[in-house]
Amino acid sequence: MCRYALTHYKKHYACFACRKAFKRRNKDDVDPAGNDHPARCPECGLLMADMGLDFAPPTTDDARAWSAAASLYEVGETFHSCGCGGPGYRPRDPTKLAAYFEERVAEYRRHLAAWVGEEHGDAARASVRDAAIASWRSRLEKVEAALGRVRKGW
Question: In principle, which of 39, 40, 53, 54 could form an S-S bond with 13, CB 3.0–4.6 Å?
C-alpha cells in the first residue's frame, strides 16, 4: 500500500532565495471550504516552490545543492510521488546534475523524434501529434537551457 494513502502528510515548500524549506498544512486540514492561498516564505515573502512530499532540503549553507534543487524545479523535476518507490534520483552536485540533464536531453530528443516521425491518419490524431511535438520541444528547451547554466557554473 502507498505510504501516503492513509495519513495526511504535509508538502515541502522551498524558498530558493533564502535557502529554506518548510512544511505546510494541507488546505483540507485547515479549512476545506476556504480559499487556497499560495505558500509564501515567512522570511522574505516570495512565493515558495511546491517540492512534494519526498523533498529532503539541503542544509542552508550548501549553496551548490540549493542551486541544483532550483535548476531541477525550473525544468519541472520535483519530489512528488505516492510514496511507494519515491520520485527517483535527483542529483545535488553540479557534475552529476549536468550528467542528469544530459540524460534528460537524450531522452526528450528520442521522444520528440518518435512523434515527429509518426504517420498520422486522421485530423484528431494529427492534433494529438502536434500537441505532443510542442510539449516535447518545450521540455527539451527548458532542460537544454538549464544544462547550459549548470555548465557555466550557474
Answer: 39
Name the amino acid, one letter, at 100: Y
Residues 29-50 have a mean pLDDT of 81
Q: What is the mean pLDDT of residues 84-110?
A: 88
Retrieve residue 137's grid coordinates: 520541444
Phi (first) and psi of residue 138, to 5 degrees: -65, -45
Q: Does 9 or 12 have the greater pLDDT score? A: 12
- What is the predicted pLDDT for the residue at 34? 63
Angle at 54 between CA 3 and CA 8, to 5 degrees: 50
Separation CA 39–CA 79 (nearest Å): 17
The amino acid at 66: W
Closest CA to 108 of 153, 145, 70, 152: 145
What stretches of 42-138 adopt beta strand conformation (E)? 49-52
Q: How far apart are CA 92 and CA 23, in angstroms?
A: 20
Q: Which regions of the chain does DSSP assign to beta strands (E)?
A: 11-15, 20-24, 49-52
pLDDT the model gives residue 2: 64
